[in-house]
Amino acid sequence: MGAVLLIAAAMVAGCGVGVTPPSVTVPGTGSAAPSADQGPAKPVPLQRVPITIAPELIGADDPFGGQQFAEVPQGWSISVFARLNGARFPAWAPDGALLVSSPKEGSVVRFTADGPGGTARQSVLLPNLKQPLGLAFAGDVLYVAESNAIRAYDYAGGKATNPRTIADDLPDAKSGDLGGTYAHALKNLVIGQDGSFYYSVGSTTNISVEDRDANPERAVIMRIPPGGGKAEVYARGVRNGTGLAVAPDGAVWTAVNHRDNILYPFDKPFGSAASSSRGQVVEEYVRDHPAEQLAKLTPGRDLGWPYCNSDPDVEPGEAGTAFDFTTPAFTPDVEFNADGKKFDCAALPVSEQSMPAHSAPLGMDFGTLPAPFGEGAVVGLHGSWNATPPRAPEVSFFPYANGNLGPQQTIVGGFQNADGSRWGGRPVAAAVGPDKILYVFDDTANAIYRVTPP
User: Fold this and answer.
1) Which residues of 374-398 are buried (b: 16+ CB within 10 A; e: fewer)?
2) Which helix (H) or strand (E) covers residue 297, if one does?
3) Is there a contact between 396 and 379 (Cβ–Cβ < 8 Å)?
4) pLDDT digit string, tens, across residues 250-261
5) Is the peptide bond before 389 cis (omega within 30 degrees of 0)?
6) Which residues pair with 396 in a beta bridge?
């Protein structure tokens, strides 16, 4: 589809207008935003609403050729703000423009508008890039994570100039030992409160011990110290940590997209099996394992992959057991660490929070939403590609308080029907804009949504 010229129904300070957004009050809550130690006491009810879209944004053979619906908090609305082929991760520029990466197009696209209700304009800010994903600003300097390098640009007058390389020769499909393939070549980056750079390097395959022995290592989060210098491993055993964000207290968090087709690790029958299921791919077990980790990173932390798997089972290995996604324990991987001697999983700090298996988290951001949500993290979940029934795509909210994240709740859903079919939308990321509106980025319906409170 490519980047398409768009009409925005309403566009405020987050996208270059320079006006003050109106205050937001949820009925029955008053006008005060919740403090950081608040948040919904229970999941906020969602309602099914139509996704509004201007006719001129609908192309041929488009999922929006017919009316589509989504689920949002009661009283909220959702509209298509923009269309961009393969829309991925955002950044708001100092001039208020919204920048969005498109690895599929190899570009970073800039969106602006004349005023509320005005015509949105798009332009390609940076073309001919190699699978750009992560974007970040430090003052007037824009940083872009391509699959093979991190580069910096001076940003002024709606243009990005004076490119220079911050980190080069990052592992991707060009790496000689990989035969031209790399399963998780896309890289995200964030800038810490002290000026450090953190960037993700995903695993080459679904499961690979070789990544931990490679030079440079893969399946890691890297750190470049303030002022520059050599990049060093900050955290390892991070299979695909493109969900990378800095919390209000400065801690770096990652949401990890985990493995498929895990082998059953216990020497006993699973469910109705007549004999031990150990080492087998049991579909019912695979459906719920391993949990997708949500972890606060510290120097040298190890998230265990591929030797240890985050296990949400209250009764490990039992069919039909309840799940607990807060601080799930680790279970040794039967394929690479069957006897636990290769890697001591019990010695690893457990993940602070997690999500159901095959949720496929890709993008993560911290922000403050109107009551009753307050401060928290929003994570774009792409949904499963092979689980039965499928894990639904959605945007999840995790309340933040006292340096930690609370349990997951859906804030935008409805991309999957009750029978497991999908109309076409799959969120990859979400972020709270300067206008306090939630923006959602969808690389399958090629859309950027505005999810607007009452």
Assistant:
1) bbbbbbbbbbbeebeebbbbbbbbb
2) strand 292-297
3) yes
4) 999 999 999 999
5) yes
6) 379, 410
Give me 309's structure tokens.
Answer: 């798997």
Per-residue pLDDT tens for 338-356? 999 999 999 999 999 999 9
Q: Give me the long-range contacts of 53-62 (CB less than 8 A, separation at least 24).
A: 53/79, 53/80, 54/6, 54/7, 54/9, 54/80, 56/7, 57/4, 57/6, 57/7, 57/82, 57/83, 59/1, 59/4, 59/83
Q: Cα(273)–Cα(281) distance, rounded to whole angstroms?
A: 12
Q: Which residue carries 């010695």 as its tokens?
A: 347
Q: What is the token pair recorded at 294?
A: 């949500």
Q: Which residue has tokens 């390892």?
A: 236
In what order do the strands lie in the sheet containing 69-73? 69-73, 46-52, 77-83, 447-452, 438-442, 427-432
Is residue 284 within 8 A of residue 264, CB to CB? The reply is no
Share of the chain residues as helix, strand and coil, in percent rounded to the nearest 5: 5, 35, 60
Report helix, strand or coil for 55: helix
68: tokens are 């589509």
pTM for the model stands at: 0.90
> What one-character DSSP code corresponds to residue 14?
G
Cα 374 to Cα 342, 371, 452: the distances in Å are 43, 6, 15
Q: In sequence order, what DSSP letters do the residues of 200-259 get, joined into one string? A: EE--SSSS-THHHHSSS-SSEEEEE-TT----EEEEE--TT--EEEE-TTS-EEEE----
Cβ pair 58, 64 in contact under 8 A: yes
| Closest by CA position to 90, among listed 113, 72, 109, 70 | 109
Q: What does DSSP assign to residue 36?
A: T
Contact 308, 343 (CB under 8 A): yes
Name the percent of the chain lying above pLDDT 70: 89
